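Render this sequence as a predicted structure.
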Amino acid sequence: MCGMEIWINPACSKCRGALELLDEEGASYTVRRYLEDVPTEDEIREVLTRLGLEPWDITRTQEAEAKELGVKEWARDAGSREKWIRALSEHPRLIQRPIITAEDGTAVVARTDEAVRDALSR
């Protein structure tokens, strides 16, 4: 991935807000509708590295699918990491949004205007 990319769900108000702010700032970016263009396990691993987070840090545990899978009970340790990553790839609705990958190789979960501006400044 090069340049700025934002993973969005168009139905999500925080995603729409992030896009509006990027447009106001004149940012150049690529939109990825991750529910349709589902990230592979490798792409999820790469984004986690860029975020400096673990898969459970970007899992929406309140989603119906999360409850069905019982993710709240899953161990949050190195041995369980791949299980979480597989779940995020198989159930992309569980991925926290929006995620912006910044120009400098880092990424942020851009749920606030401050986080979007942070990504723009990198």
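Summary. The chain has five helices and four strands. Residues 50 and 105 are 6 Å apart (CA to CA).
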